[in-house]
Amino acid sequence: MTKINLNSTWEFAPSLESTDHINLKKQYELFIGGKWVKPSSGKYFDTVNPATEEKLASIAEANDKDVDKAVKAARKAYDEVWSKMPASERGKYIYRIARLIQERAREFAVIETLDGGKPIREARDIDVPLAAAHFFYYAGWADKLDYAFPNRNPVPLGVAGQIVPWNFPLLMVAWKIAPALATGNTVVLKPAETTPLTALKLAEIIQEAGLPDGVVNIITGAGATGAAIVNHEDVNKIAFTGSTGVGKIIQNAIAGTHKKATLELGGKAANIIFEDAALDQAVEGIINGIYFNQGHVCCAGSRLFVQESVYDVVMRKLKDRMSSLVVGNPLDKNTDIGAINSKEQLNIINNYLKIGKAEGAEMYQTECSLPKKGYWCKPTLFTGVSQSNRIVQEEIFGPVLAVQTFRTVAEVIEKANNTPYGLSAGVWTDKGSKLFNMTSQLKAGVIWGNTFNKFDPSSPFGGFKESGFGREGGLHGLKAYLKV
Amino acid sequence: MSNKKVILDYNATPVIDQVGVLDRIDRITSRSLKKDAKMHGLKLALSMIDLTTLEGADTTKKVVQLCNKAMHLHDAMPGLPTVAAVCVYPNFVETAKKTLKGTKIKVASVATAFPAGQSSREVKLLDTKLAVDSGADEVDMVISRGRFHEGDYNFVFDEIAVIKEACGKARLKVILETGELGTFDKVRRASDIAIYAGADFIKTSTGKISPAATLPVTSVMLEAIKDYYYKTGIQVGMKPAGGISNAKLALQYLLLLKETLGDAWLTNEWFRFGASSLANDVLMQIVKQTTGIYQSKDYFSKD
């Protein structure tokens, strides 16, 4: 067969984003009541750069006592200041946070890349601008809640306990804090233990913005710290983004309490390519769907469905496009796929690669050299799989695509919905009527038409089935923090 | 070429989604070329330029001056490539050939009632004959956009095929004038028609219509070239023309080319820039990369 060699001899020279402008402390304490306080546990853990395995900083580990302190600070701020403040004043603080993020966007992007391993291109062009956009968006709602919920007299819930994952550390913090503040709640937030730095940098911005003490408290730690937040009796609402496994534990823990919850959990999205689609652009969408952020995306398009008549051509185009993806140093501006977030996650992904091969699937990886240190996974796809395979059923959370074929609309709808998850889906067709037929039958919270992984603060995001409940973003995102 | 057996079905030309094309281009324009990689790209870009003058006011002396520029881009810096070709109207081909004698620089001539293409088949063939008989190495024809919009694809196809025949040994570049086509779908269809009808190159624009070449349009055309290559094993060249006046943009075109078609196309045999002012900006960047200092525009000759 005719082949095109895309491994050009014209290679990129290193083009590294500089790190000398960033300001990182050697050790971070807990941000409680507007101050940096030492953890009562006296313990600290390391956060490392997954691309180099080098330690970036020591991070305080919050125990039950610290969580109690943080919740009390949040309660005090709620009772005495935040709930009494005119909404328009609240909005001003949120606007200020948004502007300060924009002003320090470069520093945030670099730290996000160092701590999490994502390519600087994504941190710079997606994570940080979207985080700022979320604060701007919700700042605007702060004094307009009566218009969002006419004649319902919306009132805040109180103290929100928020737990965010490691895949979009700053962005997820923004998704949580911005609507909570806009609706008049106070916050105790825990970033993931592998990526706490941008949340802690945000605490600096919150201080700089002059937000009243205790309105936002940021405490760090692993699962036990999160559990202490969830189980604290004076927390009114839990907002969690993370794995379905932990989501179930949380739901169990709060059963029978007054606590409200929104859970944004795992996914195994179907990305469906019809034969009449714009195939070159669909291929771009497949790439954005699964290789964005190393596939560490809950709404990643990890199950590809290609209509049989165009299967060969789509696979050819997809493999060609994959070969131009640059894997390596996340700080390099040309890097498309950075480091896997942690050793644990790399082990999970590698285990799934083994499972896939053992199940008889054919594995394809691009030819690229990987750095010696750090955690890496080449962009991968599996063909010859079906709904019966574990790599099709389970969330891998890595740059691993499972490809299936289908013949009819009915068949692909059945297969796309044949999963415990239901977070997102993508449909590619040149026919508008087909697109809307699909969107009305697919059981997923977000469905993209002829695109994938596009986000906007005004658009609600959330899941069906085991992908969770509640919506974040947009008008719907306000409701999760209000009694209406 | 003669044993081509692939038949074009006008109804089966792939559809193009604008949003996705722009997404792809975003990825290209966020690439970053530094040091050696940048220098390599700059020199490559220089070697791919079709240095062009297509004015009503063109004179023999003006064309000679342009040819001199083509041969002596910036002699102060040794080791530079020359441009690929000069591109002129048919009546200046002889002059250009004579002036460029003994160099590897090709002479390209526009033809077929350039730029509008609004004339009879006979006139277009005569125009082509004038260019080829005068010694043109390459012919840049325009397609009949009016007929294309009317849906008379066979007419457009046949016209290209006839001109191709009239070109003899000269390589044929087919100008789609994408700025007049309106949608990416039409750009793709016109690309397919030109390629299947025998174009050696497909070219975006005459330079007389705005918008001229753009990265998205070029991306669509490169994908058409790629699909055809996978089908037939036959390489077709690409020439974006018009509006590419600075080195940074030229490098982005080359990156798009590299990531779409790879090394086999990264040569002036298969890729050209139609441009009049690009060369000096590329030269300025090459000098900057070498000496670390930006020089004034007046240190680079303007012909």
Care to describe what's here?
The complex is a heterodimer of chains A (484) and B (303). Chain A is α/β, with parallel strands linked by helices and 484 residues long. Chain A has two domains: 27-265 and 464-483, Aldehyde Dehydrogenase, Chain A, domain 1; 270-449, Aldehyde Dehydrogenase, Chain A, domain 2. Helix content of chain A is 39%, strand content 17%. Chain A is built from 16 helices and 20 strands. A seven-stranded mixed beta sheet of chain A has the order 14-15-16-13-12-17-18, with helices on both faces. In chain A, strands 9-8-7-10-11-19 form a six-stranded mixed beta sheet, with helices on both faces. In chain A, strand 7, helix 6 and strand 8 form a beta-alpha-beta unit. The longest helix of chain A has 22 residues, at 120-141. The model of chain A has no long low-confidence stretch (mean pLDDT 97). Chain B has 303 residues and is α/β, with parallel strands linked by helices. Chain B has one domain (34-299): Alpha-Beta Barrel (TIM Barrel). Chain B has helices spanning 18-29, 35-47, 60-71, 93-99, 121-133, 145-149, 153-167, 184-197, 215-232, 247-260, 278-291, and strands at 49-52, 85-88, 106-110, 138-142, 171-175, 201-203, 237-239, 273-275. Chain B has an eight-stranded parallel beta sheet with strand order 7-6-5-4-3-2-1-8. In chain B, helix 4 links the parallel strand 2 (85-88) and strand 3. In chain B, helix 1 (18-29) crosses helix 9 (215-232), helix 2 (35-47) crosses helix 10 and helix 2 packs antiparallel against helix 11 (278-291). The relative contact order of chain B is 0.15. The interface between A and B is medium-sized, with 34 and 35 residues.
CATH topology of the largest domain in chain A: Aldehyde Dehydrogenase, Chain A, domain 1
Ranges of chain B with pLDDT <50 over ≥5 residues? Answer: none
Count the strands of chain B?
8
Low-confidence stretches of chain A: none
Give the spatial strand order of the biggest sheet of chain A: 14-15-16-13-12-17-18
| Oligomer class | heterodimer
Task: Tell me the span between the first and last alpha carbons of chain A.
Answer: 64 Å
Shape of chain A: globular
CATH level 4 superfamily of chain B: Aldolase class I
Q: Please state the average pLDDT score of chain B.
A: 96
C-alpha-based Rg of chain B, rounded: 19 Å
CATH superfamily of the largest domain in chain A: Aldehyde Dehydrogenase, Chain A, domain 1
Number of strands of chain A: 20
Spell out the helices and strands of chain B N to C: HHEHEHEHEHHEHEHEHEH
CA distance, first residue to last residue of chain B:
38 Å
CATH second-level architecture of chain B: Alpha-Beta Barrel
What global shape of chain B is seen?
A: globular
CATH topology of chain B: TIM Barrel
Number of domains of chain A: 2
**Mean pLDDT reading of chain A:** 97
Largest sheet of chain B: 8 strands, parallel
